[in-house]
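Throughout our pipeline, every protein is held as a single compact record rather than as scattered files. The record that follows is passed on verbatim for readers who wish to inspect the format:
___
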Amino acid sequence: MRTIGVRFTILYAVVFLASGIGLLGLTFLLSSGKVTEVANPSGLDSAQQQIRQLQEQLAEVHTQQARQLLAGSLLALVVMAVVSLLVGRVLARRVLRPLRTITSATRRISADSLDRRLAVTGPADEVKGLADTIDELLERLEVSFAAQRRFVANASHELRTPLTTMRASLDVAVAKPDPATSTVALADRLRVQLDRVDHLLDGFLVLARAQHGALADSAAVDLGELAEGALLELSSEVGAKRLTVTVDVAPGTATRGSPALLARLVGNVVDNAVRHNEAGGWVRISGFAGEEAVLVVESGGPVFDQREVDRLARPFERLGGERIGSSGLGLSIVAAVAAAHGGRLALFARPEGGLRVSVTLP
C-alpha cells in the first residue's frame, strides 16, 4: 500500500515532468524554423550561387544545433526527473512531519492516559485544527471514562447496604425459635446467592480501581510469595479435587506496584487454575525475573479454541458450561491490574488441553 508521502512524491515528479516535456516541445517547435532560401533560377551569376551555398551551410548548422538542443534538453529532463523525485521526497516528508508527530503521540495515548494532550503549537492551519479536534475528543473520552468508573465504584458501594440488610434479615429469620425447615433451606440458598453478588461487587470495585490507574500504595512485591499465599487459601479445594500442584518460582521474581491489586492479580490467576480444573488434574506455577517479571500458571483440562480463550480477558466471558458459576470477572481483573502496572496478560490454549496464563510485569 502506498503511503501519502510516496503519492506526494510521485505527484510532484509527474507535474514536473509534464511541465518539462511541454517546455521542451515548445522550444523544439520554436527552433525548428527553416532558413529562407533565395530562388536560384537558371542564369544566376556566381555571387548569387555563393549566397545559396551560404544559406545551405546555415541550414545545416541550424539543423545540427536543433539536434544538440534536443539531446541536451532530453538529458536535462532526465537529470531533473531524478532531482524532482529527491526534492519531492524531501518536501513530502517536511509537509507530513506534523502529521507523523500527531500519529505517534496519539498511539501512545491509551485508556489509562487520557489526560495527555497533543498540544500542537504553530499557525492556525489544517494540521493544528486536526490536532485540536483530537484533543477535544480525548477530553470528552476522559470525562466519559471517569464518569463510568465513578458510577461502577459508587454503585458497588451503594449496593453493599441492601446486601447487608438482606443478610441481617436472613439471620433474624433463622435465629427465631424452632424455625421452619423450609425457612432454613431458603436462607441457605439465599446466602449462597448473596455471597455471589457480594463477590461480583467486590470484583467491580477492584476492576474500577485497576482501570483508574491510581497506584498510590506502590511497594516491592514478591510474586512467589503471593502465589504461595493464594495456594494456601485454596488448599481445601486443592485437596478436594486431588490436584497435583507444582510451584517453581525463581527467587527474586518481584515487581513494584500496589500490593493489594497484585495480590488480587495472582490470586485470580491461581484461583482460575484451581477452581476450573478437573478432579485429579494438575496445576503448574512458574516464574522468573529478567528485564521483566513473568508469572506463568498452567493447568490441565479439555482442549479449548484459542479464539474463545482470547475473549476471557473481557468481563463476563466464560469457557464451557462448567464455568457458568463464576462471576466472569477474574481474568478481566487480571488484565486490568497488569495494564495498570505497565504489564500485560497473555492467554494460550494448550494443544494437550487446559490453559496457560502468562502475566508479564515490569
